[in-house]
Amino acid sequence: MKPIGYWLNRTDRALTGRMNTALADFGLTRLAWQVLNVVADDPEAGDASVRDLLAANATSDALTDAVETVVRDGWAVRPGPGRLALTEDGRTRLAEVAERVDAFRALATRNVSDEEYRIAVGVLERMALNLEATAPSA
User: How many C-beta neighbours within 10 Å does residue 113 have?
Assistant: First the structure.
C-alpha cells in the first residue's frame, strides 16, 4: 500500500486537472472557482478573506492572479479598496457552473459512500490539525 502522502498528492493533481478541464468552457480554473465561491458566500469578502480561506490551496501569488482573473473577466468587481463582490452576470454564470461542478463531484465520488467520504475527510482534518498543532522540533 502506498503511503497517504502519495494518495493525497495524486488525488489533488487529479482533482485540479479534471476540475480545470470541466471549467475551461467558462474560462475558469479550480482556484478561480474557489475564489468566486468565497466571494459568493461572504458579502464582506475581500482579498484578505480570499487569502485566509484559500491559503492551503495555493500560493499568495496564485491567489492574487485568480482574483485578478475573475475581476478582469467580469465575474466580480471591487466595490471598495480590497473588497470583492460578484457581478450580476458573475452570479448568473456561477449558477450555470454549478451543474458542471455537480457532475464533476459525482465522478470524483463514484463508488464512495457518503459515510466513507465523511470518514475520509474527518481523518484528513484530524491529521492536519495534529500536524499544525505540533511545533517542529529543532
Answer: 9
3-state SS assignment for residue 37: helix
CATH code (residue 58): 1.10.10.10
| Residue range 46-68, pLDDT digits in tens | 999 999 999 999 999 999 999 99
Where does 35-105 show beta strands of DSSP type E? 76-77, 85-86
In angstroms, rounded to a whole number, what is the distance separating the alpha carbons of residues 55 and 85?
A: 20
Q: Angle CA(41)–CA(42)–CA(46) in degrees, nearest 5?
A: 125
How is residue 35 written as a grid cell?
475564489
24 within some domain: yes
User: Residues in the chain, how many?
Assistant: 138
Q: The domain containing residue 45 runs over which residues?
A: 4-112
At residue 135, the pLDDT reads: 62
Q: pTM for the whole thing?
A: 0.87
Contact indicator for 75, 33 with CB cutoff of 8 Å: no
Burial profile 4-20: b = 16 or more Cβ within 10 angstroms, e = fewer: eeeeeeeeeeeeeeebe
